[in-house]
Design brief:
The structure holds two protein chains of two kinds.
Chain A: H1 3-25, E1 27-30, H2 32-40, E2 47-53, E3 65-66, E4 73-79, E5 84-89, E6 102-110, E7 113-122
Parallel strand pairs in A: 1-2, 5-7
Antiparallel strand pairs in A: 2-4, 2-6, 3-4, 4-5, 6-7
Chain B: H1 13-42, H2 46-79, H3 86-91, H4 98-105, H5 109-130, H6 135-152, E1 156-157, E2 164-165, H7 173-176, H8 181-185, H9 205-232, H10 240-268, H11 279-304, H12 308-330, H13 348-369, H14 385-407, H15 409-418, E3 425-426, H16 431-458, H17 463-492, H18 500-526, H19 532-552, E4 555-556, H20 572-577, E5 579-582, E6 587-589, E7 592-601, E8 610-611, E9 615-617, E10 623-626, E11 630-632, E12 635-638, E13 643-645, E14 650-658, E15 664-667, E16 670-674, E17 678-682, E18 684-687, E19 691-700, E20 712-717, E21 721-724, E22 727-736, E23 739-740, E24 743-744, E25 750-759, E26 764-767, E27 770-774, E28 777-781, E29 783-785, E30 790-798, E31 803-810, E32 815-824, H21 826-856
Antiparallel strand pairs in B: 1-2, 4-32, 5-32, 6-7, 7-8, 7-14, 9-10, 10-13, 11-12, 14-15, 14-16, 16-17, 18-19, 19-32, 20-31, 21-22, 22-25, 23-24, 25-26, 25-27, 27-28, 29-30, 30-31
Helix pairs in contact in B: 1-2, 1-6, 2-4, 2-5, 5-6, 5-9, 6-9, 9-10, 9-12, 10-11, 10-21, 11-12, 11-14, 12-13, 14-16, 16-18, 16-19, 17-18, 18-19, 19-21
Classes of the chains: A alpha+beta, B alpha+beta.
């Protein structure tokens, strides 16, 4: 066997290893109920939950509370299955939070509360904005 | 709704129409250029060929001029605050300083496409004038890329359909917000001000980082174009020489651009690091790694006629990866996996087409020509430089592949979704931990190979010679390594050296530095122009050592050593790792005495900081009046009564650090209060040679719900001393005044103002409470001294005894919660970066000379 063939085999093996580890270390998108089940079964891995913020009839976001340290905050999120859940976050509210049309929280359940370690926002597309500052 | 007077000003239609005209001209001219150069390339007859080349050249100049025209018109719109245009309205406002108007230019996606096109146009002109032989095919590729980019900003809706091609930067606000009620009632409405630039982007790095990064992007097109040209013309061997200096240029600029982004994050964001493995960062990191790999195979080919096929594959991959990263970051596909919120312009289809077009052309051309590409059939020896360079290249490729795969999970999800399969795979939740554990070992491999590879590079060696050559660097590395370990045990304790991955990377980094330094020394004597490689590798070694220390040994120093909790309602970690500082109450932190002195404002036109107590607010939040002479750094910044401009959004927190020898350093971490975009905290950094002290404000006195003590009333004489919140106060005098603020009083009204001096810890303050009788009603205007938490009111006047009643309220002093880190040897990383760039530059200069020499011989 030529050296170059050995090299190619090693590279392919490494690439396959990377693919397997990627699939293995990947997190997943789940609903709140599934996340709760995972946490009560003792799974420690952080997961992603996609949803929207709870709004009143006028479209204002409701349920946002600032924590006692003025750094953390909590909010109410509704996942794709319609389940409402209070989510706590150890950092201040991200910019444009209330404007977001979709929220992704990464974290896990701690007791009855979902604790997010990271929040990702999907903001409305440029051609969907409606408010003008006068 | 209140409609401002501004809405009666005419809309500026002309400038937008002109811009749009330039956009269309640029697009059409790029198509004409591509067609002309294509004809020039495939035409055999010399005179017709020359005619087509001339056509192409004229068309490309017209294109470049139009691109410049688009840039100028867009900038005129931004600089003149024409808020009837969406671009100016969304990314700027009237108070934005001039240099940030430049950031506005590339804040929107349209502007960054424009920036990219601008660099391509400039590089295209350089190529036309330096490389006549390759002009036809190279410029065909260039012009096609420009046509795709131009289509992204066309903003044309196809007739009879809803389908829109591109998103124009010249679109009017009312056309974007068609549903907004104000435009239904008044289409000519112009907003008074824009929504402003995201506060985090109001940073000087955001003025130079995007242009640098996009120049790097643009530079990768040059080697790609030469490679395609080489395949097209069947001149498989010849394209490498002109492409190599450009690949080196791209490697340097792209690397610099990436690190500027990291430095911006370090200085502006408060996560305490410079690299977060966010998809947006990964999307530029991977092409850079592959570009570095491509540079190595191209150099190998130039020296030994091997690795030509690998060079072709890698050079194509770099450009395709740049397009892929553009697709990832701009199509909205990362919407659920990146902290950067992207505005989706609905361009994903166009972006995908752009990516696939060049991918398919390059792959198809390579496949058709594959058999013709010359290869060396010789079996490579394990003791040859080619072998080890090639192994290094493979490690770089795998390193990129490892980052590319998890970053592409959202793409994978949408692909399987289009086949009707649901995939709930998400990128790793802990990005930093996940990527670090893999990239670290790849980095060790890269470091070791760039140390050993260099010895093969310069000499024909066998096992014996190799051992002899490597002995000295190995011994020196071992000695330095042991000294560093001793130093770490001495300063950080013996636990600090029990981290195997950290020590491995330190050892590998040191070995690279020492081994390449040896090569560099011998080269400096014989042929210094060839030293680029050794210098670049020393830079890589320094970067690894710097990253290892600054990230691996970063530690929180703002430890709560008071024995008291900050709050019962927060986590233990928060109580342990943050320091609560009240104004003028010293604490200790990391061998410093640390003291918070109060909130400060930033003047717009002078460098320095101003205390809130030294200025009086005006009706305009952007203007304040100095109450007294304002000193900064022992110099008078403003005289009393001076009116000056400030940035009301920026609040700075003056923190004085005093070391054991009594030397002081002042930190000014910042919080930006932006009503529309939220608060943003930025750190301030004390830079020492061996470490950075990195501090940011986590929390501060809330502006609402301040609790004042019950009013304490004192009856005193003029010139009498009294105490307020333990501060000595003196009632200096009481005078009648005839104007309160900007309001003049009637002759029947009476107003008196007391002047009370208050002796603070570090300076004297003057409080001027006012007592008014107007329309037989008594009014009192108290005066608050913010720094001291004291409010004084002139409660009453007793003309019969010549006495005055002063009301005193006190409150808890202002406070902040501070978090601070120590980042050891981070300077080694920054210096290493500069060394790496220097290495690239030396190598580039050498390859440009080589190219010119051959050109003079008639071989381009």
């Amino acid at each position: 066997m030529k050296k170059s063939h050995i090299l190619i085999l090693v590279v392919i093996a490494a690439a396959v290893g990377i693919l397997i580890s990627t699939a293995d270390d990947a997190s997943s998108y789940v609903s709140f109920s599934e996340a709760y089940k995972l946490a009560s079964n003792g799974a420690k891995k952080d997961i992603h939950v996609v949803g929207v913020l709870k709004k009143d009839a006028q479209g204002n976001v409701i349920g946002i509370q600032t924590g006692a340290d003025r750094v953390s905050f909590s909010f109410i999120m509704i996942d794709d299955n319609g389940k409402e859940q209070t989510v706590t976050y150890n950092e201040p509210m991200p910019a444009d939070f209330t404007k977001s049309e979709k929220v992704v929280v990464i974290g896990s359940y701690e007791g009855e509360q979902f604790h997010a370690t990271k929040i990702l926002l999907k903001c409305p597309s440029k051609y969907q904005e409606e408010k003008v500052n006068v | 709704m209140y409609v401002s007077a501004k809405s009666y000003i005419d809309m500026h239609y002309f400038i937008g129409d002109l811009g749009h005209f330039f956009v269309i001209t640029a697009f059409i001219a790029s198509l004409v250029t591509a067609f002309s150069y294509f004809k020039a390339t495939i035409t055999e007859a010399l005179d017709t060929k020359q005619q087509w080349v001339l056509n192409g050249r004229v068309a490309f100049y017209a294109h470049a001029f139009s691109v410049l025209g688009i840039c100028v018109t867009l900038f005129i719109i931004i600089a003149n605050h024409y808020f009837e245009y969406h671009y100016a309205y969304s990314y700027s406002d009237k108070k934005l300083p001039g240099h940030y108007l430049l950031s506005t230019f590339w804040n929107g996606q349209e502007g960054s496409f424009l920036l990219w096109m601008f660099w391509h146009a400039l590089l295209g002109i350089v190529l036309i004038h330096t490389n006549r032989f390759w002009e036809g095919p190279v410029m065909t590729v260039f012009a096609m890329v420009q046509a795709f980019l131009g289509s992204m900003i066309l903003g044309i809706v196809l007739p009879y359909t809803e389908f829109r091609i591109g998103s124009s930067p010249f679109i009017l606000l009312r056309d974007v917000m068609q549903q907004a009620p104000i435009f239904k009632s008044n289409p000519e409405f112009i907003p008074n001000d824009g929504t402003g630039l995201n506060p985090l982007l109001q940073n000087y790095w955001m003025v130079i980082h995007p242009p640098t990064l996009f120049l790097g992007f643009a530079a990768t097109l040059v080697p790609f174009s030469f490679c395609i040209a080489g395949l097209w013309l069947r001149r498989y061997r010849d394209w490498v020489r002109p492409a190599l200096p450009w690949a080196l240029f791209g490697g340097a600029i792209l690397g610099l651009g990436i690190l500027m982004g990291g430095y911006w994050a370090y200085e502006t964001l408060n996560f305490g690091g410079y690299w977060n493995w966010d998809p947006v960062e990964n999307a530029v990191y991977v092409p850079w790694l592959i570009l570095v790999a491509a540079i190595h195979t191209m150099i190998t080919y130039k020296n030994s006629e091997t690795a030509l096929k690998a060079s072709i594959i890698l050079v194509i991959s770099v450009f395709v990866l740049i397009l892929y990263s553009t697709f990832l970051t701009r199509s909205g596909i990362l919407g659920e996996s990146s902290v950067h919120s992207f505005t989706d312009l609905g361009l994903s289809g166009q972006l995908l087409l752009y990516l696939l077009f060049f991918l398919l052309i390059a792959v198809a051309l390579s496949i058709f020509r594959w058999k013709e590409i010359p290869t060396s059939e010789k079996e490579v020896s394990t003791y040859s430089r080619e072998f080890w360079i090639f192994v290094g290249t493979l490690v770089l490729c795998l390193m990129g592949f490892q980052v590319l795969m998890p970053t592409s999970i959202p793409v994978w999800n949408s692909i399987v979704k289009s086949f009707g399969i649901a995939s709930n795979m998400a990128p790793p939740a802990d990005q930093v931990g996940y990527y670090t554990k893999f990239q670290l070992w790849f980095a060790v491999g890269v470091a070791l190979l760039s140390a050993i590879g260099q010895f093969f590079w310069w000499k024909k060696v066998d096992a014996k010679v190799l051992v002899k050559e490597l002995m000295t660097p190995l011994i020196i590395t071992a000695v330095i390594f042991l000294i560093v370990l001793q130093f770490m045990i001495f300063t950080e304790g013996s636990d600090s050296i029990k981290k195997l991955p950290h020590l491995t990377i330190l050892l590998a980094g040191l070995f690279t530095i020492v081994a390449n330094a040896k090569i560099l020394m011998s080269l400096l004597k014989s042929s210094p122009t060839l030293s680029g490689g050794a210098v670049a590798h020393i830079g890589v070694g320094m970067m690894l050592v710097g990253i290892m220390f600054s990230s691996g040994y970063s530690k929180v120093v703002s430890l709560n050593n008071t024995g008291m909790l900050i709050s019962r309602e927060v986590s233990d970690e928060f109580n342990r790792e943050n320091l609560l500082l009240f104004v003028n109450e010293p604490r200790t932190m990391a061998n410093y005495k640390i003291e918070y002195r109060g909130e400060r404002l930033e003047p717009r036109n002078k460098a320095g900081y101003v205390s809130m107590d030294d200025v009086e607010q005006t009706d305009d939040p952007y203007r304040v009046v100095a109450k007294e002479d304002i000193l900064y750094d022992n110099e008078v910044l403003y005289k009393a009564k001076d009116t000056f401009e400030i940035f009301p959004e920026n609040k700075y927190f003056e923190i004085v650090l005093t070391n054991a020898k009594g030397k002081t350093h002042t930190l000014y971490p910042r919080i930006q209060d932006n009503p529309t975009m939220g608060n943003a905290a930025s750190p301030d950094i004390k830079r020492d040679v061996t470490k950075d002290l990195y501090a940011h404000v986590v929390s501060r006195t809330p502006s609402e719900e301040i609790e004042w003590s019950k009013t304490e009333e004192l009856k005193i004489n003029a010139k009498q001393e009294f105490f307020a919140n333990d501060y000595v106060c003196v009632l200096e005098n009481v005078e009648r005044i005839f104007k309160v603020g900007s309001v003049s009083l009637d002759s029947a009204d009476v107003a008196v103002q007391a002047t009370i001096s208050v002796k603070g810890e570090y300076k004297d303050y003057v409080a001027e409470p006012i007592f008014i009788i107007r329309n037989r009603m008594v009014g009192r205007i108290p005066h608050e001294i913010k720094d001291l938490g004291v409010r004084l009111t002139l409660m009453n006047i007793h003309p019969e005894t010549g006495q005055f009643t002063i009301g005193i309220n006190t409150r808890q002093k202002d406070w902040i919660v501070l978090k601070a880190f120590e980042k050891p040897f981070i300077n080694v990383l920054w210096i290493g970066t500069l060394v790496l760039m220097t290495g690239f530059t030396i190598a580039m200069v050498r390859r440009i000379r080589e190219f010119q020499k051959m050109k003079e011989k008639g071989l381009e």
